[in-house]
Amino acid sequence: MHLGKYSVRGFRSLAGVTDIPISSPTILAGPNDGGKTAALSALGFLLGAHTLTEDDRSYLAAESGGRCALTEVIGEFHLDPWEQDRFRLPAEVRIRRCAEADLVPRYEIWGPVPADEDLRDLSGKLVPDLKELATRFGIRVPKPVKATLLDALTEYGREHSGGDGWSGMPPALADRLPRLAEFEGHSLDPEAAIRSVLAVRFKTYVAEENVQRRVHDLETDASDWLGIQAKPLADHIVERCGDIATVTVQTDVSFTPVLRSTNLRLERASGEQVRLDHSGRGSARRISMAVWEGTSELLAAEPSGDEVDPEVGPPVQVIVAYDEPDTHLDYHFQREVMRIIRRQGKAEHVSVVVATHSMNLIDGVDIRDVVLLKLDDHRRTVMQRLGSAEHAAFDRHLGAIAAAVGLRNSVLLHERCFLAVEGETEQLVFPLLFALSEGMSLQAAGIALWGCNGNDGALNLAKYLHEHGRSVMLVIDADSEAKNKIFRQGNLTRHFGQDREKVSRMLGKRSGVDELEELFDDETWARTANEAWPRDGGWTPEHFAAHRGQKKFSGGVEYMLQQHNEQQPRKPAMLWEVAVRLERPEDVPGELRDIFSDLRALAG
């Protein structure tokens, strides 16, 4: 079985989170206490690796006792052909693990529900009860052991159902659930890392046919031995109770293989014995990194193709779960972790889920594989995911546009406001002008800047962000509507609808000029030119005033400066020289200061 996504209800802060994807890798991002670790623990509960406690049940004041009535994690699984044939199930199934106030978990599968209630949950029944049910419904089983009885009764229940719903999952199907290998970054515990991955391999070993046969033989021998030991007790009951003719004690023995511990013994090249807990964080970090890297080899060592045993089936999915693996790691080691994670995810049967704060890890994957978890006003985890099936507008093309304009995944997820500008000049000078006007950088204010550069795709990205509740402002020159069709009012309305005027700002319109360069007065231009591009006789405000009211102020100034200076300044560099020489917030044109103030409000 391959887990594609899972949903959680009633688990810690995850009162209702749906469709967390399982990819290679999936990145769970978000602030502290946002639900990242809870999401990994819920995954562990689904796969049988986490024991539910009272504190795991979501606190809901309206519910009896303050806790939710039901905790459930629902997984959507894809079954391989062997599993479909073995369990007579479709290719796609929904399986949940749930528990009520008694904290006793049970597996259930969505599908036809047996009309008879006695057939709805067979997993807890003993062999005598199963035999009695088989007799009642006229089911003949060649070999009436528990496994064959369960299969026969489950199939009968499906054929005699009253509709779809949740009912008991075939116990043998639990053996095909994905294996979970958990790595926790907080502890820097190489032994725990080794134990986690060896536990996965141990389960694979135990599932092999020859091992299962030996375990079954041991269980049978133990059961027969216990029967002999119970014989005197049975005889004594018959002797003491005259109304009882015979007593038979039936035993059902199960040897559950468990990897109890792994101990790591180190010896330096000099022969010195080393205690791991005394070797220092640096050594523990290097050893953990080696363990994580070595995990890739172990996980890739599953059989495939012709090596698959037809009795055991193909290898099951392995999900490697990392909880903040970047903790205690410097930038270099964070990159190493990302490399290891990518390598692990390349194995056909391996998926990786990473809970992290690391921008390096978040930016290293496709945006569609990043899940943002954060708390709402009611202290409940909510999920945001760009590019999911529900957000079909964010396709691969928009992801490429985001990357091309310099918007990393971490920026798309975390920044509070997005500022789209017309082109290169604005991208160059807006950070300087904003910092002077507002006393902080765009980044510190939580504002992400990108240039449209005449690309309609950038507007589609702005449209997508706006539609999903993100604050967006588009700042363009007043004359751009006539010059570039993507900035015409009709096109902007198509992108932003009734919010067009709120989202788009025509720079210079209020001041009666056509472009950004014209907002700076002639004295400022002359002072800048004399310092940056001196000429014989110097520059005066009149030199620049002569270009106002002409077809293109910036074009006229650019040509004039190039005619009198060997540096041949281009338009972006011209305005940058102006911006770096401004000293006071008041030196920034008033129309720009108002726009920057509005941006601060949006970001806040």
Layout of strands and helices, then pairs:
Elements: E1 2-9, E2 17-21, E3 26-29, H1 36-46, E4 71-78, H2 81-87, E5 92-99, E6 106-114, H3 127-136, H4 146-159, E7 161-168, H5 171-174, E8 179-184, H6 190-206, H7 209-240, E9 266-267, E10 273-274, H8 280-299, E11 318-323, H9 331-345, E12 350-355, H10 359-362, E13 370-375, E14 381-384, H11 396-404, H12 409-414, E15 417-421, H13 424-438, E16 447-451, H14 456-467, E17 471-477, H15 480-483, H16 489-496, H17 500-503, E18 504-507, H18 522-532, H19 541-545, H20 553-563, H21 571-580, H22 590-603
Parallel strand pairs: 3-12, 3-13, 8-11, 11-12, 15-16, 15-17, 17-18
Antiparallel strand pairs: 1-2, 1-4, 4-5, 5-6, 6-7, 9-10, 13-14
Helix pairs in contact: 3-4, 6-8, 8-9, 11-14, 13-21, 13-22
InterPro entries: ATPase_AAA_core, Bact_Antivir_Def_Nuclease, P-loop_NTPase, TOPRIM_OLD
Protein name: AAA domain-containing protein
Pfam family, one: AAA_21
* Residues in β-strands, percent: 15-25%
Count the helices. How many?
22
CATH topology assignment of the domain at 2-174: Rossmann fold
Shape: elongated
CATH class of the domain at 2-174: Alpha Beta
CATH architecture of the domain at 2-174: 3-Layer(aba) Sandwich
| Sheet with the most strands, sense and barrel status | 6 strands, antiparallel
Low-confidence stretches: none
- Total number of strands: 18
Mean pLDDT comes to 83
Q: Label the structural class.
A: alpha/beta
Span of the ends, CA to CA: 46 Å
- Rg to the nearest angstrom? 34 Å
**Strand arrangement, major sheet:** 2-1-4-5-6-7
Helix content: 40-55%
